[in-house]
Amino acid sequence: MVNNRERILIVDDEEMIRWTLNWKLSKEGYSCSEAGNADQALEMLTDHSADLVILDINMPGKSGTELLPAIRTDFPETAVVMASSLNDAGIIIQCIKEGAQDYVCKPFSLGDILLSVDRSLAKSKLETQIWQHYKFTADKPGEQMAEIRGFFFGAVENLVYSLEANDEYMTGHSRRVKDFTLAIGRQLELSSDTLEEMQWAALLHDVGRIAVDPHILNKTDKLTPDEYRHIMSHAVVGPNMARPFISNRVAGIILHHHDHYDGRGIDQLVTGNDIPLGARILSVADAFSAMISDRPYRPAMSAEQALAEIERCTGTQFDPVVAHAFFNTAGFIKLDED
């Protein structure tokens, strides 16, 4: 149950959908209002701000995709969840690039909507905190700025972990990936600045998953090639979402973290040592964390099984130098599993 009555504006030309969402979300403690078209929505947002807008794409007159940029420009702290009966990966990615926090497909269940609203509000808070951080630290001296960055990273970290807590298969994943990434980086004697970049990349490497259809993410059967490609698109969407708030180097690490060392990854343009070192490190850390976690299609592997799989794929999927550095952190890995 929501405690602070976060405000939601439901924008849809179908009255029954508006009424149903209003009724369901109000029961969960949200304060809801309705608009039947784009012009009415903008008028209501101007008069009464909203924390989140649920925006139908296919409306008569100005569509939801046409309204989205106006909302993001005029009301940047308002989160937007797009809703449509069309499950089109191209439309989903375009909406995310335009600033939507999430995308739900009709017909949707109460669980789908509540999960989307919860993670979209959390992501919006994360974006706001990142933006406030950069405005606040822009003119601070080096020592003070470093201290502020530390406090800020902790706040962002807590928000990401809270967001993951809504997904039973992802809970703790970013924390593990961050820990494994830093362990490898220290083993390779990377600089403190590089380790800080790695820390940010590890924390934010999966933010693009919000653009992935949850039904595909939670599928228990084998994925089709198109479904697998759709899931892998999160590595492209993530940097685009976070680019205003992260360096180009961090964006590059996130973009390439699913590239294979031998060049045989999905739509891969670089290979071997041309893949950013940070991405090669993140690739191993991410894969290991995923393998020792339950997934909809398989139970978790043991640490020993996962290490054997990393070894099997060394030289093909994984950089041998990075993989061997990871093996040298085996004591740390065992402690994490325990």
Q: Can you characterise this structure?
A:
With 338 residues, this protein is an alpha/beta fold. It folds into two domains: 7-120, Rossmann fold; 167-337, Orthogonal Bundle (Hypothetical protein af1432), CATH 1.10.3210. It is built from 16 helices and five strands. The protein has helices at 15-27, 38-47, 64-74, 89-97, 110-137, 142-164, 173-187, 192-204, 214-217, 225-232, 234-242, 248-255, 277-291, 303-312, 320-327, 330-337; strands at 7-11, 31-35, 52-56, 79-84, 102-105. The protein has a five-stranded parallel β-sheet, with helices on both faces.
Key descriptive features of the protein:
disordered C terminus; 16 helices; 2 domains; 7% strand; Rossmann fold; five-stranded parallel beta sheet; Hypothetical protein af1432; alpha/beta; elongated; single chain
Outline:
The chain is of the alpha/beta class and 338 residues long.
Strand-helix topology:
Layout: E1 7-11, H1 15-27, E2 31-35, H2 38-47, E3 52-56, H3 64-74, E4 79-84, H4 89-97, E5 102-105, H5 110-137, H6 142-164, H7 173-187, H8 192-204, H9 214-217, H10 225-232, H11 234-242, H12 248-255, H13 277-291, H14 303-312, H15 320-327, H16 330-337
Parallel strand pairs: 1-2, 1-3, 3-4, 4-5
Helix pairs in contact: 5-6, 7-8, 7-13, 8-12, 11-12, 12-13, 13-14
